[in-house]
Amino acid sequence: MHxxxxxxxxxxxxxxxxxLLMGMERAILMLESTQDPEVLKGLFRAVHTLKGNxxxxxxxxxxxxxxxxxxxxxxxVARTLxxxxxxxxxLLQSVDxxxxxxxxxxxxxxxxxxxxxxxxxxxxxxARAGGTAGEPPVLGKVRGVLPEALGELPxxxxxxxxxxxxxxxxxxxxxxxxxxxxRLTAMLEQAERHSPxxxxxxxxxxxxxxxxxxxxxxxxxxxxxxxxxQPFARTLWELGAATGKQVRLETGGEDVEVDTTVxxxxxxxxxxxxxxxxxxxxxxxxxxxxxxxxxTGTLRIHARQEAGAIVVQVSDDGVGxxxxxxxxxxxATGLLGPNEERDDAELFQLIFAPGFxxxxxxxxxxxxxxxxxxxxxxxxxxxxxISIETREGAGTSFTLRLPLTxxxxxxxxxxxxxxxxxxxxxxxxxxxxxxxxxxxxxxTGLLHxxxxxxxxxxxxxxxxxxxxxxxxxxxxxVGHGRDFRAGLAVDSLLGQAQTVIKPLSKLFQHLPGLSxxxxxxxxxxxxxxxVSSLLRSLxxxxxxxxx
Amino acid sequence: xxxxxxxxxxxxxxxSQYLSFFLEDEExxxxxxxxxxxxxxxxxxxxPGAPPxxxxxxxxxxxxxxxxxLAVKLGLPPGxxxxxxxxxxxxxxxxxxxxxxxxLIDTIGQVLDFTPEELEPLPAFxxxxxxxxxxxxxRVGSKFVLLLDIGRILGxxxxxxxxxLRTTDPAFERLSKRGLP
Lengths: 547, 181
What we know:
The complex is a heterodimer.
Chain A: H1 3-31, H2 37-56, H3 60-77, H4 85-102, H5 116-129, H6 164-189, H7 196-220, E1 222-224, H8 226-229, H9 232-243, E2 247-252, E3 257-259, H10 260-281, H11 285-290, E4 297-306, E5 309-316, H12 323-332, H13 344-349, H14 371-381, E6 385-391, E7 395-403, E8 408-416, E9 419-424, E10 428-433, E11 444-449, E12 452-458, H15 459-462, E13 474-480, E14 484-490, E15 492-500, E16 514-519, E17 525-529, H16 531-536
Parallel strand pairs in A: 2-4, 9-17, 12-14
Antiparallel strand pairs in A: 1-3, 4-5, 5-7, 6-7, 8-9, 8-15, 10-13, 11-12, 13-14, 16-17
Helix pairs in contact in A: 1-2, 1-4, 2-3, 3-4, 3-5, 4-5, 6-7, 9-10, 10-14
Chain B: H1 8-11, E1 16-23, E2 26-31, E3 35-40, E4 54-60, E5 63-69, H2 70-73, E6 86-94, E7 97-105, E8 107-114, E9 119-120, E10 134-140, E11 143-148, H3 150-155, H4 157-168, H5 170-178
Parallel strand pairs in B: 2-11, 5-7
Antiparallel strand pairs in B: 1-2, 1-8, 3-6, 4-5, 6-7, 9-10, 10-11
Domain CheW-like (chain B): 15-159
Pfam families (chain B): CheW
Protein name (chain B): Chemotaxis protein CheW
């Protein structure tokens, strides 16, 4: 076989192995709590498939390891081995070892340092001993070495699974477009027999199909966000074991569909929030009981879709943020002056500062004050916003609001200088003409709207646009959710249009106020404004609301 | 297509092809394998807040192409856009990922074939642009054409974007200004 073909085969094998391992991990975690024979059967199938694949693709070590896992599972079936915590740990470590042997990335976790040979020995020993497994090796003690052959892995190909029915719809639609186009061509060849209205109608028919196709193609990129939540079952299990805390994971809204990039980018912030919640939020079982709470804490990760945005909420029912301690720490580190006061919203914002931590000691989990900074940065990068709600003693909830990165939006086009900008229609509330007395050159101003003073931003000045100043200016009243209203003064209102958002190049990814670009009917590129980040760059503090 | 282009050592042994173009009446050239295509300059949309060497974005058959003002990038006065202005589409690497971008140039020159003897090493100083951005010089008759190291030129962008970020992001500024021990 040609080496390239072999490499391609291995690529497919790795993608498959990655999914199998993820499934195994999930099933192993369920072993402890469920008696459902289907879980065990499913696990068996996954293990068996993996063993066959490993052998075929030339990973004898991995196949041997899988074989030992299979032996152990056999004992579960025969009920000679109970699913004790130590056996579950051992099985989870086997999954890590397999990931390493096969060169498959771990799911959002730092690759564990495990020595496959040690795991292999332990598995066989456990199987021989008939379940009296002794203490499994501690994670992180032995450092494994990647086999030579896997030293230089090619970057994994970015792939996406698309439902076959979606693909079929795409195919159907392409067929319909072909027919419709043929009809249009036939009509145009004998254009004199048809009225312009008929031709236009035929064209619009094709056009409609084409828009359907466009929408479907975009939808093909969408995946359920639940894929980003899956690894946390294991994370929580491990954190619980490490801290002696009992935490139950509750997830919701896994089927909310988001662009595949969101799933990739949201993993890190979520990991930090989950670790923080367990380490700082949720109390030890004894403490919880003393406070009249159930001994097992609950961590909820919930996703939902709100107009044009994905909202992901991570909440715990732990101690909540300690206002006093944050204030003290902020004063001690010089973030605030010795007698400086802040309202809750601004104070809690400080926990996102790099290096800020109120933990008394640094644990393996957290306390270095890096995590929240990472959360902040990543969410900023996705042009999202974070809000914190907390009640002392009752828990904390972080709400991440992420804009849809790639989609068709209803847009509202405005002209500024020589350029056209697109505002997401859901951010646009109304349009008014700028009163004569406000006509000027300032970058900002105040507008009287039905008895209220409304701040506005002149985009022409803000963006330093070129071109002659217009005769009249209009103000678009924009907002974000219920909380914010502001005006954007523009040269002209161009009206509503469906817009396909295209992500801007990586080069422009950090510019505040822009969320993407769209290609106009004229072939020019228009920029799509991100209203919330545009307003945020003007307002003294970001969107942080405290209950 | 290779985008790392410290190719002066390898090009010394083979016949190499370059595409030349003009900036400020000076002739520069790029390894021909680094050029994806050449398009006419039209309708570049300015990006507010972007650093000056980023001219904007344009529509390349339905995808959005960032356009770099090569002159500014090389430390020359900003490129004039005449009727003969073109965009040379090249591939660069940013944070380990390939990105396609356009270079704005004054006019396209020609395709040059250099034998190893016609390639000269760089002088210690005296070039109109920083020596870091060059891989060598090619002799055409009595004149010299400066050979650009596109990997270096575009590779230096990452830092500059980060710099631009620092000054435009108030949230970041606020947090960093207060400083933490």
